[in-house]
Write a structure and sequence with these properties.
By secondary structure, the chain is an alpha/beta fold. 38% of the residues lie in helices and 25% in strands. It has a single domain, classed as Maf protein. The chain is globular, with a radius of gyration of 18 Å. Nucleoside triphosphate pyrophosphatase. May have a dual role in cell division arrest and in preventing the incorporation of modified nucleotides into cellular nucleic acids.
Length: 213
């Protein structure tokens, strides 16, 4: 039996898969993202945002793969999926804010402007001959021109502190996004069309992963 294992603690990514009929196994990685990016930058120089999120998605999958319990690895044929998202604005990339002050500063810089949300996807097929492949979805997001009061109220909810880019489109931040150009699933954190393409590369269809119970 082939199962998809999501190497992420993100409730939004799991909810996206569940809404698409896929009930994934979940295992959370223990990756030091800053260390991964620092090592890659030292070796290759400045990273393109699309490459940075793909590198982190790969690191999450590889960490989970190394630490799988034997009983899980032996019970099913696993497809491991890792994702990572960052917002690109003014040539810089932003993950989760460090604190409320950081989230507030970001929103004051973002309001009324557009940024690009990059989500890297890394798939590891552990059936038969192990195979790895990945791709990044990039979606332009235009933010509403929020007042200082709206920003302060949103940051006070705590939601922006838990997500890349300090915003959501499927939560309290939804009204503060004016427009999305591209795949909205990618903004939530997992592009279903891109996942379908990656699965197709290893001969797996979306319907074959649907929850049959």
């Amino acid at each position: 039996m082939t199962r998809l294992l999501l190497a992420s603690a993100s409730p939004a990514r799991r909810a996206t898969l569940l809404a698409a009929g896929i009930d994934p196994l979940v295992a959370v990685s223990d990756v030091d993202e800053d260390a991964v990016l620092a090592a890659a930058t030292a070796r290759f120089g400045a990273l393109d945002p699309a490459d940075a999120v793909l590198l982190l998605a790969q690191a999450k999958v590889e960490d989970v793969s190394r630490n799988l319990p034997d009983e899980l690895e032996d019970a099913v044929d696993l497809l491991l999926l890792g994702c990572d998202s960052m917002l690109e604005l003014d040539g810089q990339i932003f993950g989760k804010p460090t604190d409320a002050a950081d989230a507030t500063a970001r929103w004051r810089a973002m309001r009324g402007r557009s940024g690009v949300l990059h989500t890297g996807h890394w798939l590891m097929d552990e059936r038969d001959v192990p195979t790895m492949l990945g791709a990044t979805s990039s979606t332009t997001v235009t933010f509403a021109a929020l007042s200082d009061e709206e920003i302060d109220a949103y940051v006070a909810t705590g939601e922006p502190l838990a997500v890349a880019g300090a915003f959501t489109v499927d939560g309290l931040g939804g009204p503060f996004v004016d427009r999305i150009e591209g795949d909205h699933h990618g903004v939530v954190g997992l592009s279903l069309p891109l996942l379908r393409e990656l699965l197709g590369e290893v001969g797996v269809t979306i319907p074959s992963l649907w929850n049959k119970s």
